[in-house]
């Protein structure tokens, strides 16, 4: 049986299989939102509302309005919070269909003929790499045959920066090749039902799985 994955689920599994299993598989633990994650959620909702209705960001988020105003001037068809899913044959399927293999969500997709631009809103600190966006672009290439290139971008609101790269259709197979080892480990773990703990600094009071042998109270 295929276990559906998303980039966030792959990362969660790699970070700590035991924590991933408790939260996402057995669902014996719930990760409660904190002030930081709630802020991120609220900003995502406000930006989505802006692109859907034109309503500007709330007063306490106005410092970010200029970034989305600039994006709004780009040409093309705007799709907000687009959800796409494929099966193991790399064909389109439903988000909750039994054969779903991979799911992606694009915060904003702008289609313009044979090219597209996609954006992912980030409210945490900047991180290197584009693999999350490359996966999203690889799925988009599969489902929109006329696309020949996609520029994908992270908007880092905390640092007030945008990082981007352009991906050609010919690069799509390499994305799947790069991700395959991670996907295979993820699927093997589900088949074997083997989710061992992976100790890290998160064990010091930041992980909600308090029954883990590595968990300890936060210091200070």
What does this structure look like?
The protein has a single domain (7-203), classed as Lambda Exonuclease, Chain A, CATH 3.90.320. The protein contains 6 helices and 5 strands. It has helices at residues 7-15, 17-25, 35-53, 65-72, 131-143, 172-192, and strands at residues 77-87, 100-112, 115-122, 149-156, 161-168. It has a 5-stranded mixed beta sheet with strand order 1-2-3-4-5, sandwiched between helices. The mean pLDDT is 95.
Distance between the termini: 45 Å
Strand content: 15-25%
Largest sheet: 5 strands, mixed
CATH topology: Lambda Exonuclease, Chain A
Number of strands: 5
Number of helices: 6
The neighbouring-strand order within the major sheet is 1-2-3-4-5
Task: Provide a compact summary of the structure.
The chain has helices spanning about 5-15, 15-25, 35-55, 65-70, 130-145, 170-190; strands spanning about 75-85, 100-110, 115-120, 150-155, 160-170. It has about 220 residues and is α+β, with helices and mostly antiparallel strands.
What descriptive keywords fit this protein?
Lambda Exonuclease, Chain A, 5-stranded mixed sheet, 36% helix, alpha+beta, 5 strands, 6 helices
Please render the helix and strand layout as text.
Layout: H1 7-15, H2 17-25, H3 35-53, H4 65-72, E1 77-87, E2 100-112, E3 115-122, H5 131-143, E4 149-156, E5 161-168, H6 172-192
Parallel strand pairs: 3-4
Antiparallel strand pairs: 1-2, 2-3, 4-5
Helix pairs in contact: 1-2, 5-6
